[in-house]
Amino acid sequence: MDKNLETAYSEVDRDLSTEWLALTERVRSLTHEIHATSPSEHTALLSGEVTKLCDHVERLHHDVVRLLVELDEKLPEFDLQPTHLESSEIQQETLQIHREAHELRADFKDIIKALFMWQDDPVDRLREKKSS
To answer: Domain check: are 64 and 114 in the same one?
Structure first.
C-alpha cells in the first residue's frame, strides 16, 4: 500500500472514532447545563451555536461512514487494508522490488519501468502471487 494512502486511511480511521461523537454529546450536555443554571441571552446563543456545531460534526461523521460503506460495496476489489498479508512478507517483497530495480534486464517491460522510474507495489505483487 502506498504510504500516503496508508496515512490517509489512518487519519480517516482516527477521525471516525466514536470518541468524537461522545465529545459532541458531552459538549451538548454541558452547554445545556450551563444554560439551565444561568440562563441569559449569551448562554442561549452559545447553546444554539454549540447545538448546530455538534449536529454538523455528527452529520459529517455519519455521512463519511455511509460513503465508505458505499465505496466498499461498489469497489470490493479495492482493499485498503492488507490484513491478510503479513508485514514481513511485504517487507521481503519490497526488498525484492528494490533488488530488481538495480538489475540490468533486456525485457521490454523492465525497460519501460526503468524509463518511468516505475516501482511495483509490494502488496499488489503479493496479492498477485497468492492468487495465482
So the answer is: no
Q: 118 lies in which domain range?
A: 87-131
DSSP 54-85: HHHHHHHHHHHHHHHHHHHHH-TT--S--TTS
Evaluate if pTM is beyond 0.85: no
- Tally of domains within the chain: 2
Residue 104 has pLDDT above 80, yes or no: no
User: How far is it, in rounded angstroms, from Cα 44 to Cα 9?
Assistant: 39
Check residues 22 and 111 and name the one with the higher pLDDT: 22
Q: What digits encode the pLDDT tens for the residues 25-52?
A: 999 999 989 888 988 988 888 888 999 9
Among 26-30, 39-43, 93-97, 102-106, the least confident range: 102-106
Name residue 95's amino acid: L
Q: Which helix (H) or strand (E) holds 109?
A: helix 108-115
Question: Which of 68, 63, 89 shows the shortest CA–CA distance to 79?
Answer: 68
Buried b (16+ CB within 10 A) or exposed e, 61-78: beeeeeeeeeeeeeeeee
40 and 98 inside one domain: no
